[in-house]
Amino acid sequence: MADLVSGAHGEGAHVGHFTFTNRLMFNRVVSTPDIFVDLVEVVTGIRFELAGDPQAERTFEPTLSSKGVRMDVVAVGDDRVVDIEMQTQFEPYLGKRLRYYQAALDVSHLDKGSDYGVLPESFIIFLCTHDPFGRGLPVYTLERCCVEDSSVDVGDESHWIVLNATAYAAANDGQLADVLEYAATGEVRHRGGLVGRIDEAVRDANNDSGWVRNVESVMSLEDGLRMRYQILMRDEVAAARKAAAEEGRAEGMARGIAEGIAEGRAEGIAEERARTAMLAKRLEKEGRVDELAGALADSKRFDALLVEFGL
């Protein structure tokens, strides 16, 4: 697992424990109310007043047929909403992802018939462990503006902030620099500040053996699911190639491959995911969730479990 380190956080760290950049660790730590508020203030300069505890892995579905969004940590308060995301992989469509996240937040805060004025001011913050735009800036603040006249106040009150952890040395704010450096290297320079409390929360989580076991199970499950879906997609592409070859036409091959990749036999994969999710719940209910990871790598065992639970 890429998020496992050996001693990267100094004394007290242990081999096999999770770093701050691990998705589940990040969600646990940043959903702590005081850490969330202080991190928002360090990034935005605004003291955010919470109306309730931050929610980790909150799911938004703008419509029943649209793509759902699972946001890392979201909190609402004082006419503002803030979403903080950890991004460890390069996202080629980060701008469009920000756009979609913004849409999901807005739809969730505007009831039918409501005036647009009730939309809260919003902040979407992505903490990236790489430079997403390649300009070497520690902070990319993205605002909507009038191209012809920059003095025009658009008044949309939506703010996108993308942090580049690799440029921590160039950050103007000391606490922000510390947080970025911690995300990039795992090192803590000033233990008394915000980064010290973040590191302490990471240590506490890693010392929670029950939580660590659950995270390991979840990550093993996700790896297994990812592998299984990759196999499904590979088989679909192979089937599309064979069908196209039998047609004997280049355009048929191109069309078949494109359709196989784009559609991915949506119905079959959707059914497979649903059955796997149901199986996971049944195994968890019976205290047998550890069996799932092995079954995902063994088709016969997986099928046997489906039969056992009537799925």
Cα gyration radius (Å): 23 Å
Placed side by side, the strands forming the largest sheet appear as 3-4-5-6-8-7
* Helix and strand composition category: alpha/beta
**Helix content percent band:** 40-55%
Question: What's the main sheet like?
Answer: 6 strands, mixed
* Shape verdict: globular
Number of discrete helical segments: 10
- The run of helices and strands is EEHHEEEHEEEHHHHHHH
Binned strand content: 5-15%
Low-confidence stretches: 1-16
The separation of the N and C termini measures: 30 Å
Count of extended strands: 8
State mean pLDDT (0 to 100 scale).
82
Summarize this structure as a short list of keywords or feature phrases.
six-stranded mixed β-sheet, two-stranded antiparallel ribbon, 15% strand, disordered N terminus
